[in-house]
Design a protein that fits this description.
The chain has about 300 residues and is α/β, with parallel strands linked by helices. Helices cover about 45% and strands about 10% of the residues. The protein contains 12 helices and 8 strands. The strands form 2 sheets. A 5-stranded parallel beta sheet has the order 2-3-1-4-8, with helices on both faces. A 3-stranded antiparallel beta sheet has the order 6-5-7. The longest helix has 17 residues.
Length: about 300
């Protein structure tokens, strides 16, 4: 499976991504993690990224795509991957498609975790994170048993400074203007599937698994066949030939006499005339009313 995860900040796509990794055994590729790892390892791409960040510039798409290409070459990515955090806009999505086509691993699914704006605000402003173990709580939907204390390790729960309403509103506006158009981009490709990200985490993951399994089991599309070349204009304009009459069958030929030719007609006409002449009766002798005389008999 080759998936890109889509969803606004606070939609829970990171949580669902981790569940996908555990269930299907494919790596989750986060561009932030790739950047940090490349910088720490001082790879050529890592040094280029570090130079850009130290200069106060954004890391270019070419550098990020180069890191993704290298990551997909590792053994654990042979059976698929889950991309999280990239692409963030249409140009990045187009560049990603080209890169994945070059390495023979095109995307199969764009999975959107969809959550309403009001729910996102509640999730993000109520988020609390344990400073010790990183466990995440929400004071509105999943609060800790003791206020400010982690249920798992007892550590302090921290409210991030950027988890305030003004900052979160700005982040959501950026998402709407830049990242949300990706939904239409992947919908036009026929790769978009949506799962509602509201409810229990396990119930949401059941919906995610149902979508992923359906895509994996779907048969590969048949290769498109080329349409036949259009006929030349002269051929298209010509009217179709009228069909010939079928030859007469023997029975029909016996019933229907052949039409005579011109010489036969002439011969037939002459014969008819001769027959007419021969058929004229000889002139009859005029019969008078006198009776013939009776013969005398002698005794």
């Amino acid at each position: 499976m080759r998936i890109v995860l889509l969803g606004a900040p606070g939609s829970g796509k990171g949580t669902q991504g981790k569940r996908l990794v555990e269930h299907y055994g494919v790596p989750q590729i986060s561009t932030g993690d790739l950047l940090r790892a490349a910088v720490a390892a001082e790879t050529p791409l890592g040094r280029a990224a570090k130079a850009a960040m130290e200069a106060g510039q954004l890391v270019s798409d070419d550098i990020v795509l180069g890191m993704i290409r290298e990551r997909l070459g590792e053994p654990d990515a042979r059976n698929g991957f889950i991309l999280d955090g990239f692409p963030r806009n249409i140009p990045q999505a187009e560049a990603l498609d080209r890169t994945l086509a070059e390495v023979g691993q095109p995307l199969e699914l764009a999975l959107l975790i969809d959550v309403d704006f009001d729910v996102l605000m509640q999730r993000l402003t109520g988020r609390r994170t344990c400073e010790s173990c990183g466990q995440v709580y929400n004071v509105y939907t999943s609060p800790p048993k003791l206020d400010g204390r982690c249920d798992r390790c007892g550590g302090n729960l921290r409210h991030r400074a950027d988890d305030n309403e003004e900052t979160i509103s700005n982040r959501l506006r950026v998402y709407e203007s830049q990242t949300a158009p990706l939904i239409d981009y992947y919908r036009r490709q026929g790769k978009l599937r949506t799962v509602q990200g509201v409810g229990e985490i396990e119930d949401i993951f059941k919906g995610v698994r149902k979508v992923v399994d359906a895509v994996e089991q779907a048969p590969a599309p048949a290769p498109a066949q080329e349409a036949p070349a259009p006929a030349p204009a002269a051929t298209r304009a010509r009217a179709p030939a009228r069909p010939r009459k079928p030859a007469a069958t023997p029975a029909r030929a016996a019933r229907t006499p052949a039409r005579p030719t011109a010489p036969a007609k002439a011969a037939a006409g002459k014969a008819s005339g001769d027959e007419a002449e021969a058929g004229k009766a000889a002139p009859r002798k005029k019969v008078t009313g006198k009776k013939p005389a009776a013969k005398k008999t002698t005794t």
